[in-house]
Amino acid sequence: MPAISRKRKSRARSGSKPYERHPHSSSPALSDEQNGDECPPSPILDTADKPGFPTYTQYKRIEMAYLQSLSPRKRDKALISQCMFDKIWDVLHQPDACTIGTPQFRFWVRKMFTLSTPNTEDDSEVPVVILHENRPSPFRSSCMNSSVTATKNANHGGRDKTCAIIRQHYSWVPKELTAQFVKACPTCTFKRS
After folding, report:
1. pLDDT tens string 145-175
2. Which residues is 125 bridged to in the sheet?
3. Which run of H or of E encompasses 135?
4. How distant is the alpha carbon of residue 167 from its chain centre?
5. From residue 104, how far is each of 42, 93, 118, 175, 186 by CA, in Å?
6. pLDDT, tens digit, for every residue of 61-89?
7. Handedness of CA 45, 49, 53, 54 (dihedral sign)
8. Residue 35: is its pLDDT beyond 70?
9. Among 191, 33, 172, residue whose Cα is nearest residue 113
10. How far apart are CA 163 and CA 171, in angstroms?
11. What phi, psi does 136 have (nearest 5°)?
């Protein structure tokens, strides 16, 4: 068995997650809401160094409006919160565990997500990532960074170019959320007019 395969197996068995928990923010209005789950609120990102993009507060308003426009049954899985990510991670790492979520939730996780490590040539430690349709799925607190990066890479070219770039790199980012982000972007609005 090659050395890389053994490393991947040992990492897959370890319980560590490839992220750090973020400190709680003081604003409950900007937290990841999950029915009955105690989720830590999302951190408030500093967007002062990103002129020409919507602020974090504007983005959270867009996100909340998007979630409120969905039916209650679809809200929980529309964006992956930190708590949902933790549960998905646990289900994929403990396939035989019957205490994580409901049977329907475990079936949904196994059907929609996989674990994978990117193929690298060197022996550096590469984190295991959760994939949907062979692309990473950003969780709710990192969707803004994904949108900012994609809008910048699209040269503020509008909704379709930004959505195409997001689809190349990520999965599970709603097109409507991206459209509203682009609509709120002052640079995109200026270039459009």
Report:
1. 899 999 999 999 899 999 999 999 999 899 9
2. none
3. strand 135-136
4. 13
5. 27, 17, 29, 26, 42
6. 999 999 999 999 999 889 999 899 999 99
7. positive
8. no
9. 172
10. 11
11. -65, 150
